[in-house]
Design a protein that fits this description.
Number of strands: 44
Number of helices: 5
Largest sheet: 22 strands, antiparallel, barrel
Oligomer: single chain
Structural class: mainly beta
Subcellular location: Cell outer membrane
CATH superfamily of the largest domain: TonB-dependent receptor, beta-barrel domain
Pfam family, one: Plug
CATH class of the largest domain: Mainly Beta
Number of domains: 3
Distance between the termini: 57 Å
Main location: membrane
InterPro entries: Beta-barrel_TonB_sf (IPR036942), CarboxyPept-like_regulatory (IPR008969), OMP_b-brl_3 (IPR041700), Plug_dom (IPR012910), Plug_dom_sf (IPR037066)
Protein name: TonB-dependent receptor
CATH topology of the largest domain: Maltoporin, Chain A
Radius of gyration: 28 Å
Helix content: under 10%
Length: about 800
């Protein structure tokens, strides 16, 4: 059935396409210097001046409009250029208008009023694009804050990112793996949100993308402008609790050279807490744990690079990124031990952890285009080197008079190499064939050591907690993909092959686990355009989820001496069949995107609680089960008036998980949802107010449940300095309710816990634009796509 369903869909939609007669109008919008003009509005009118359809040019200035035979005229507009009208278009077949040159008109800036913004979400054949700059609550925040405001994406209190309820999502930066993410998703807090231009969510990736990630890919695209002259954006942020930061993003374009650079620095101090109750019914013992957490961190991110336009067909880009951070985490855990309900002992355990992180990334990209429109070859090389050093000092004292002094070191050193080539060859008017090769190598050397101080002050090693793991991962991949448009039907199919060579070695115990396997990953994406405002899509892909490095580590933290989150070096990958159907409806003043999806997973990795005879609990990941997940996702964007915008989304799903662990059957059947509602008001063009509410419903697990959580964010902004500056004030988690709450309920053990790593945050951000005003900047970034009118 899994193989038959995509075939039936292709046949049905191909039959429907024969009923529609369509022609295409193509062209390229450039300025007087023959530089492409991206995001120019192209509107097609019939002879009685009624708008028929339209689109915006892409980053190369190219556009394609599909319509039916007839007589038309075309208007091309873009901020700061004179309007261009092309008349007498009597069309009976496809036509290419060639270069359409726009003349500069600086005076036009005073004649243009933006009356509606393009939706912050754009639906493409295989992904959704979110223009995050419109969300005021992102100002002054981190990349984690930006992702937490993306529909279907959740970021928990520990910084872990999930998409549609699953943490098995692959996160990329500028389309490539980054050392920031490879170490830990929590590292996203060190990337300033002001440096992000847009976020791409790919829920059912095509074969051109890596097959990793059960629920898809999140691609964070950093700001990089290519406009002529000197352009830039500068920000300063201050907040309570202590939050100080600044960033800049600047580019200098002269003829065939474009220099770009960005830098962001932030200092933040946060407070958190944890509360838990652990009960062991068979022994009539229990204990409570109260934790107080304090963290301070200073982080820096700097990027510099150069685009060299060798000629009209060859471009060479080089860039270097350097990230480093220094942090101190202090925790105090208080355990109250009970026997038959009577308190008999109190233990206080403190931990001071110093953490230093450093990440260097260098990349070179070569891009070649051809006279044939759409034909392109790219070659990429990337090198990553990362260091993450953690040093902890532990002190534990009890009312019984015992005292324990310990120290732990967790040093991780990592290197990555990536080489990738891609080729696109157009076929006919709208078809193309794509192919590519990719090879990656990742080597991680993680050394963990725990020592105990005796009464004489001597340090002795604890062998049960010491080990050095060397993780080597080599993945070689190739793909081929073809797509075309037949009238109103768009079809794309591909096949990707990946050979995986993965080895984990525990050097202290000489325990080696070496795995080699080859998989084929097909993908199919289909689209049907009923009208320019109504689109239907179907997709299928086969996915793999390889265990994350941290899921393989035997030990990495000893802060809590009673509950240990440990890894499992023997984990196997998960496999997923993913199906999805989507429907997009646009109308003047709003849009709806609804999706139905189904995921069939095997070898599902879940964390299991194991009890030891000494009362400690080990939480370990295992390949536990199979899972069937069904979901419905709904996104609504409304602009009731030109001063009010409403965006809401909801993801409702059911997940059935079943498996066995140590002869025990584990089963869960959960119905749950998460959603977000955002409302933004604009007053007299220069003042904006925004409120957003997030909610995550309870979720049943195989050993308990995750309880609900919700939060409210508020923000306001005011344009100053004639649109070149903006002041933004926001408060994240106004009600201080963004918590993690969970229950574990299994034979012989019950646990209830609540934790918060970061509380309510107030922030004020000032943004200044060099040689850019706000409306022009929005247009250059792809907002307001064609939704402009003259006074």
């Amino acid at each position: 059935m899994n193989r038959l369903l995509p075939t039936i869909i292709i046949v049905l939609l191909s039959t429907v396409s024969l009923l529609a007669q369509q022609i295409s109008i193509k062209g390229t919008v450039t300025d007087e210097q023959n530089t492409p003009v991206p995001f120019a509005s192209t509107a097609l009118y019939n002879l009685d001046s009624a708008l028929v359809t339209g689109t915006v040019s892409d980053e190369t200035g190219s556009f394609t409009i599909n319509t039916t035979p007839g007589s038309y005229y075309l208007k091309v507009t873009f901020l700061a250029y004179q309007e261009k009208t092309i008349g007498n278009l009597s069309l009976s077949a496809d036509v290419n208008l060639g270069n359409i040159v726009l003349q500069s008109s600086p005076q036009l800036l005073n004649e243009v009023e933006v009356v509606a913004q393009k939706s912050s979400m754009e639906l493409q054949l295989d992904k959704r694009v979110f223009n995050v700059g419109q969300d005021l609550s992102n100002a002054g925040g981190s990349a984690s804050d930006v992702l937490s405001n993306i529909p279907s994406v959740s970021v928990d209190v520990d910084g872990s990112v999930s998409l549609r309820g699953s943490e098995n999502v692959r996160i990329l930066i500028d389309g490539k793996p980054s050392g920031l993410i490879l170490r830990s998703p929590d590292a996203l807090k060190n990337l300033q949100g002001n440096m992000i231009e847009r976020v791409e969510v790919i829920t059912n990736p095509s074969s051109r993308y890596d097959a990793a990630g059960e629920v898809g890919i999140i691609n964070i695209v950093l700001k990089k402008n290519k406009a002529n002259g000197i352009n830039g954006t500068f920000t300063l942020t201050g907040g309570i609790p202590a939050l100080y930061g600044g960033s800049y993003s600047i580019n200098v374009r002269q003829k065939n050279i474009n220099f770009f650079s960005s830098y962001g620095a932030s200092y933040r101090s946060t407070k958190g807490y944890s509360r838990s109750y652990q009960d062991f019914p068979t022994s009539d013992t229990s204990y409570t744990q109260n934790g107080d957490l304090r963290s301070k961190e200073l982080s820096h991110n700097i990027t510099g690079g150069l685009d060299y336009y060798i000629n009209d067909f060859n471009t060479l880009t080089g860039s270097l990124q350097y990230n480093w951070s220094d942090g101190v985490n202090n925790s105090k855990l208080t355990y109250n031990d009970f026997q038959n309900g009577q308190l008999f002992n109190t233990v206080i355990r403190t931990d001071r952890e110093e953490e230093d992180e450093e990440n260097i990334e260098g990349s070179i990209n070569y891009r070649k285009t051809f006279e044939q429109k759409g034909r392109e070859f790219t070659l990429d090389y990337k090198y990553i080197k990362s260091v993450d050093a953690e040093h902890s000092n532990y002190l534990q004292q009890s009312t019984e008079g015992t005292s324990i002094i310990q120290r732990g070191d967790n040093d991780s050193r990592e290197k990555n190499w990536l080489i990738q080539s891609d080729y696109i060859h157009p076929i006919g008017n709208s078809g193309k064939i794509e192919s590519g090769l990719k090879t990656t190598t990742r080597v991680v050397d993680n050394d963990y050591a725990l020592e105990n101080q005796d009464n004489d002050g001597e340090w002795t090693s604890l062998p049960a907690f010491n080990n050095n793991m060397v993780y080597t991962e080599r993945i070689h991949a190739g793909y081929v993909m073809a797509g075309n448009k037949f009238g109103k039907v768009s079809a794309q199919a591909g096949l990707r092959g990946e050979y995986s060579d993965i080895k984990t070695e525990l050097t202290e115990t000489n325990d080696i686990n070496h795995r080699e396997y080859f998989n084929l990953f097909p993908s199919v994406n289909l689209g049907y355009e009923f009208t320019p405002d109504r689109t239907f899509q179907l997709s299928y892909s086969y996915r793999i989820n390889r265990p994350e490095f941290r899921d393989l580590l035997p030990f990495s933290n000893f802060t809590d001496s009673r509950v240990f989150f440990v890894g499992n070096p023997n984990l196997n990958p998960e496999y997923t069949h993913a199906y999805e159907t989507s429907y997009l409806l646009n109308w003047e003043g709003g849009s709806i995107l609804s999706s139905l999806y189904y995921r069939a997973r095997k070898g599902v990795i879940q964390r299991i609680n194991e009890l030891n005879s000494d009362g400690t609990t080990f939480i370990i990941p295992v390949n536990l089960a199979t899972q069937d997940a069904y979901g419905f996702e709904f996104n609504l964007s409304l602009t009731p008036t030109k001063w009010w915008q409403v965006n809401t989304n909801a993801n409702l799903y059911r997940a059935i998980t079943e498996g066995k662990y140590q002869d025990e059957t584990l089963y869960s059947d959960t119905y749950t949802m998460n959603g977000r509602v955002m409302s933004k008001l604009t007053f007299q063009k220069a003042f904006e107010f925004q409120a957003s509410f997030n909610y995550n419903a309870p979720r049943i697990t195989t050993q308990g449940k995750q309880r609900s959580s919700y939060s409210l964010d508020l923000a306001a902004s005011r344009d100053i300095l004639k649109g070149k500056g903006t002041l933004t004030a926001n408060v994240r988690d106004l009600l201080n309710t963004r918590l993690r709450r969970s229950i574990t309920d299994i034979p012989e053990y019950y646990s209830s816990s609540t934790s918060q790593r970061r509380g309510r945050q107030f922030a004020i951000t000032f943004t200044y634009r060099l040689n850019r005003v706000k409306d022009k900047e929005r247009k250059a970034n792809g907002d307001n796509g064609g939704d402009m009118m003259e006074d």
